[in-house]
Amino acid sequence: MKILKSLLTLLVIISVFNVQAQEEKRFKIHTVAFYNLENLFDTINDPLKNDEASPIMEMKGNRAEVYTKKVKNMARVIANIGADKANNSPAIIGVCEIENRDVLEDVVNDPLLLAKDYGIIHYESPDGRGIDVALLYQKELFRPIDTSTHELVIYDDVSRDRIRTRDQLLVSGKLDGDLIHIIVNHWPSRRGGEARSRPKRVAAAKLNKRIIDSLQSIDPYAKIFTMGDLNDDPTNESVKKVLKAKKDKKKVPLKGIYNPYERMFTDKGWGTTAYRDALSLFDQIMMTKPLLEDDYSSFRFWKAGIYNPSYMFNKRGRYKGYPLRSFANGGFTNGFSDHFPVYVYLIKEVKEDSEGVTDKG
Is 33 helix (H, G, I), strand (E, B) or coil? Predict the structure, then answer.
């Protein structure tokens, strides 16, 4: 009996010791995010683009004032994404629906973001509306090694004319010494209906898969994020059948892809944008298997979320709870975007206290 009591006491001591050891672990945390900036155009007419059809260019007056407010609103959101846990704005954030590099220069030079010293990676794309994708990164935290843009070649199913749409941006670099790859997307819209436009997004997914496959052919353990406004939900063909993204991270094979937003969409009914009284979760961040491992000696996925604080959504009326968009009925609402941003937290275990370190809980 004494032996049994002694063993039980020893087990309790070991258990307490393990709990204390776990509690003492400290983690560095960074936010990786994506945000559709909803028609962030400047007020200068570019003869090489159809920018005169943008909401701000269609306004009769106060364009400069509206542009200034729009830029400040975008900077406010970016500054706050992930700040509650990381105590910092995103280390890396993909963006879309921007006209050019100049508008991003204005955003990152806003007083709310200036000290973050964001770098910009941007290529002009052949999109018919003149909108592009880009990547912003804090220079102190992320060092780009290689960047490239990948053209999506698709054609109208009736006229067979080339559809000019957004390229896909690939950026490889080191986040605090860890090599990661980020693909920024803005897939073709649902104009003409979901079914009719579906092949265009399937084609975009196939291009995305080729980029991922090319990275994995070099390194099967590559840490890859693919993010963007896909104009498809996590359950649509482009994501489920082409990318083969998994809802359960335990079922992701070595070269597979995990989509934390599928569970949010199917189990919780969450969304990032709305159309005709229906929420959709078009904005997603997916990742490859090596980001899901339990070894936190390098950066691993911790949590995913949708950034939708109260100041970013409608408080009343028919569209209560929907994103408070910037432009409506031909005018500026002083809102933000018709999409909520999405983000993931990455954590890495550290041995000493430092800025950006948190308890994993």
Answer: strand
CA distance 139 to 310: 30
pLDDT in tens, 73-113: 999 999 999 999 999 999 999 999 999 999 999 999 999 99
Residue 126, classified by CB atoms within 10 Å of its CB into exposed (0-12), middle (13-18) or buried (19+), is middle
- Could you identify the residue written with the tokens 């406004």? 229
**Which of 330, 331, 333 has its CA nearest to residue 312?**
333
Q: Which two tokens stand for residue 84?
A: 């509650």
One-letter amino acid of 33 = A
Helices (H), ranges, 160-259: 194-218, 237
Strand spans (E) along 4-74: 26-40
Nearest CA to 125 out of 108, 157, 101, 104 is that of 101
Give CA–CA dist 86/128, Å, rounded.
38
Q: What tokens were used for 238?
A: 């482009």
The per-residue pLDDT for range 288-318, each reduced to its tens digit, is: 999 999 999 999 999 999 999 999 999 888 8
Which residues on adjacent β-strands are paired with residue 22?
none
- pTM of the model as a whole: 0.91
307 Cβ contact partners less than 8 Å away, ≥ 6 residues apart:
33, 77, 80, 81, 82, 340, 341, 342, 343
Q: Output the furthest CA–CA distance in the chain (Å, rounded).
A: 90
Query: Domain residues of the chain, as ranges?
Result: 26-352
**CB of 306 closer than 8 Å to CB of 289:** no
Task: Give me the sign of the Cα torsion angle 125, 306, 189, 314.
Answer: negative
Assigned CATH for 26-352: 3.60.10.10
User: Which residue stretches of 169-282 are H helix?
Assistant: 194-218, 237, 261-268
